[in-house]
Model the fold of this input.
Amino acid sequence: MQTLLNLFASVALLVWGTHIVRTGILRVYGANLRRVLSKSVSHRGTAFLAGLGVTSLVQSSSATALIASSFVSQNLIALAPALAIMLGADVGTALMAQVFSLDLSWLSPLAIFFGVVFFLSRKNTKAGQLGRVSIGLGLIILALQLIQEATQPIVTATGTKVLFGSLSGDPMLDMLIGALFTLFSWSSLAVVLLTATLAASHVITVPVAVCLVLGANLGSGLIGLIATLGTPGSGRRVAVGNLAFKLTGCVAFSLALPLVLHGIAQLDPDPRRQVLHFHVAFNVVLALGFIFFTDAIARLVEKWLPEAAATGAQAAEPRHLDAGALETPALALANAARETLRIGDTIEQMLNGMIEVIRTNDEKRVEELIRLDDDVDRLYTAIKLYLTQISREALDEKDGRRWAEIISLTINLEHVGDVIERILTDLKDKKIAHRLSFSEAGMQELCDLHAKLVANLRLGLSVFLTGDVKTAQMLLAEKEKFRDLERSYAAQHLDRLADQSVQSIETSSLHLDIISDMRRINSFFCSTAYPILEQAGQLRKSRLRSGTAGEATGAFTKGDLAARSK
Done:
């Protein structure tokens, strides 16, 4: 029992090491690797080499599948070059298995020692993340050594020999076990390395080992399919095409297994090397067999998996929340920011529709605008869940502030959507239903406030994008002007009531509620400036000082957002 526990712990360490290397590389070089993939699609050969190179670094074909799928879903690259990238990715993982099969025992302690030193001393820097990668490489090599040591007693232990001997019955069953183990460990590289080590220790025979390797390759295709299930649009086609490659290869190699085993035995007598040679041969043959037919296979996959027909009332879905970018925090934050701007565009559409309803009393338009708030809520939820998947420990101070800015703005925009929905509901129930209208002066006031709202929304989004301090100061100055204008218009409305204006009397409550809600909406827009000014040291700790002195120096109060909106 202790022997099996040691073996399982060594396997877990191997899987963990591959995970650390993958996440570390993606955090440091994720954006550059994505750029390499996106620019290599002019020819199937360059796409193949790009997939090979990127996967050799990240040691995960599923990570490459996520990136390629996201490109296809956003129509940045076609399906055919993405399939060529995946063929290269599979060869890349096979070559890395060959590298790790070398005697690198001397490298393990050095990699772990220097990795820990760099990671702990410079955790939130590029050097610290490269130290993390070094730790992962050291753990992989150490785990392989531990697996070799753990399998030595298995060779002589009767019970465990019977356990592993049960694998030698049916090739199809062995392939299934290899695929399931790959899904369980989420790493075909770890499974192949483990299988080669078991074969070298004579715990399993080479025929059983190569069947497990076939299963590991099939499992990696299933991992890619599972990983891309949330990819919108046509992105899932990449994983489907890659899985078709794997299935075809497994069927072909299982039929020709005796000939393949004989050829590999002639090439190298070492069982470990035979297993690894088989793994490389499998993926190289697949690449050579399919690389010139990626266009035809892409058309076939598109027939199998057609695009869903668009409908006129189709709900808004996230476009930029690429799951493949989550391992690269800076890139993931940029994606979340782009999606946040879509919420801003929807809010502007709702504001323009609101003033249209105020002018025309169009009840049908009210329902359309209320449905837009559902889109705002949907995008807000998607961005929030996306941001929570970003590893906070991988964020440096700058990225941490950006994370907070994005989540703050999405929350504020979602609140604005709710406020606009309430205004529209009130217009429907209190104005349209009773066929009332605002006075000419009241209508002009609402139009003026609306124009400033739209302008401040755009200014706020500009501050969010650029982080410019002067623009942020302009935004807070506009907030002051809007507050003063709202007070002035409220006073003018009361003067019209005193003059017994019938239209003003009938719509008095609704009019005051709308301009009050507009001031609240404006406060949400202007809050974008506060983190920018705080970082620049432009906020006072207290607003108990003279307000004119603060504004003369360009300083603002952190509590202004809450206090001035009351």
Remarks:
- The radius of gyration is 31 Å.
- The beta strands are 539-540, 556-557.
